[in-house]
Amino acid sequence: MKSLKIIICCFYLLCPFAIAGEEATFVPVVKLFSALSDANHSGMRSAVTDNFTLLEHGEIWDMNTLTNLVKPSKKQRKNFFSIISSETMGNSAFINYWNKAEVHDGDSKTEYIWLESVVVYKVNGEWKLQQMHSTRVEAENAPKDIKFTASYVKT
């Protein structure tokens, strides 16, 4: 039993680096949503470039818009991802993926799904989000064969 606990702990510790397709370029996406789940504004900012743009379901947001919406809450959010495609060209990468959040509020759970794409740049040796495009998809309209992976990094 102790060995099983050690294996499970190692899995969860290493999981962020085996993120939804083992893409190092995807780490800033996981960092952003982990920090968002923790309502950690500085963690959110550390995952993006200084001129980050989010195209959120027909609206244009910057990091100030996003952090103003993210407030501490008793609700718990768990993030899941499934990479559709990824292409890296030098210090730039383009990634298309599914994003799912399970939000737990006491005994209730609500599921949200988005189809997203990001542009990431390597800045001083670290991958950061430059641009994100996000489209909400009703859970019942999302493809049923998506294989999501839970991903979280401590922020």
Report on this model:
The protein is of the alpha+beta class and 155 residues long. 24% of the residues lie in helices and 45% in strands. It has a seven-stranded mixed β-sheet with strand order 2-1-6-5-4-3-7. The radius of gyration is 16 Å and the shape is globular.
Which features characterize this protein?
7-stranded mixed beta sheet; 45% strand; Nuclear Transport Factor 2, Chain: A; 155 residues
Q: What count of helical segments does DSSP give?
A: 4
Order of strands in the sheet with the most strands?
A: 2-1-6-5-4-3-7
What low-confidence regions span 5 or more consecutive residues with pLDDT below 50? 3-22
Q: In percent, how much strand structure appears in the residues?
A: over 45%
Helix and strand layout, with pairings?
Elements: H1 2-14, H2 27-37, H3 41-46, E1 48-56, E2 59-61, H4 63-69, E3 76-89, E4 92-105, E5 108-123, E6 126-137, E7 149-150
Parallel strand pairs: 1-6
Antiparallel strand pairs: 1-2, 3-4, 3-7, 4-5, 5-6
Structure described in brief:
With 155 residues, the protein is an alpha+beta fold. Helices cover 24% and strands 45% of the residues. The chain has helices at 2-14, 27-37, 41-46, 63-69; strands spanning 48-56, 59-61, 76-89, 92-105, 108-123, 126-137, 149-150.
